[in-house]
Design goal:
Layout lengths: L2 H11 L3 E5 L2 E9 L4 E5 L11 H7 L4 E5 L8 H14 L5 E6 L1 H12 L4 E7 L10 H15 L1 H7 L2 H15 L6 H10 L2 H17 L14 E5 L12 H7 L4 E4 L4 H6 L2 H10 L1
Parallel strand pairs: 3-4, 3-5, 5-6, 6-7, 7-8
Antiparallel strand pairs: 1-2, 2-4
Helix pairs in contact: 1-8, 4-9, 5-9, 7-8
Length: about 280
């Protein structure tokens, strides 16, 4: 079965459910088996969380999985976390293993800091962070990210989002082993809108401007944090901040995976095996 057909099948077999919260209709998915529930906050670059459907399907035989769509008008991280909390309460889910990638990893950190009663453990991959005591390199990396976000509007005048999407599709066509896989990536990339980009940048800016983490924030998760790192060139992913992230955690488990976000979409087996052996 082609990757695109597998993705379409995932959409059919994992339908959205809708829950009403304060006059808002919130879409979520809840599926899988097992006593443990995993809150998945996946994302990165132009790929929304369901692009990682293989990762999700590989975990649902062991865990209950919940994903929650962020409403399009969500202004900041804390608003999204309040929605997550209300959904968990309405579904009578009292504890979750929080799994975050890219900007989802930043949201996972804020969730773990502010919602300790709900957080059983945390899994992070390729994520940004900011701490009170950072080395000069990490400080410079964050400064560069924030500058890039502030210059985005001006950059879009020089190069449109459509131009970038076409260039990315062309790049993917040259690196994908199976040309049939391009169909899915083309669909995902073309669905990514300027509104999506602005919201994504707004959340990253919110994380790096308004949240400064300290070691005390995560001490209760001693030996309960799994951190993946690898060779991902996502400029907003946080690969270069791995040292700062690790210094915030108490006895985390570090796992190197020779993969990037593209590889995780195509074949997440290595990550899945490490997660299952850890939780």
């Amino acid at each position: 079965m082609k990757l695109y057909d597998m993705y379409q099948n995932f959409q059919i077999t994992h339908p959205y459910q809708v829950i009403s919260i304060e006059h808002q209709k919130i879409r979520y998915r809840l599926f899988g088996h097992g006593e443990k529930t995993m809150l998945m906050l996946l994302g990165g670059s132009m790929f929304k969380y369901d692009a990682y459907f293989k990762l999700i399907e590989s975990l649902e035989d062991t865990y209950r999985i919940i994903t929650i769509d962020m409403p399009s008008d969500t202004k900041d991280i804390i608003s999204y976390i309040q929605i997550i909390k209300k959904v968990l309460d309405l579904l009578s889910i009292s504890k979750v293993h929080v799994f975050g990638t890219s900007q989802g990893g930043g949201i996972a950190q804020v969730f773990a800091k502010t919602q300790k009663a709900y957080t059983e453990s945390m899994i992070l991959y390729n994520t940004l962070t900011r701490s009170k005591h950072m080395n000069p390199h990490s400080t410079d990396v964050i400064k560069q990210v924030l500058e890039a976000i502030s210059e985005l509007e001006e950059l879009r005048i020089l190069m449109s989002l459509d131009d970038i999407k076409r260039a990315l599709i062309e790049q993917l066509s040259s690196v994908l082993m199976d040309p049939n896989d391009l169909d899915l990536f083309e669909k995902l990339i073309m669905e990514y809108s300027e509104h999506d980009e602005k919201r994504q940048m707004r959340l990253i800016q919110d994380l790096l401007t308004n949240y400064v983490f300290e070691k005390e924030d995560f001490e209760y998760l001693k030996q309960k944090v799994l951190v993946f790192y690898g060779h991902d060139d996502d400029p907003f992913g946080g690969t270069e901040l791995i040292e700062t992230l690790v210094e915030l955690l108490t006895e985390p488990n570090l796992e190197f995976i020779d993969n990037d976000r593209l590889g995780l979409i195509l074949d997440p087996t290595l990550m899945v095996d490490k997660i299952k052996s850890y939780i």
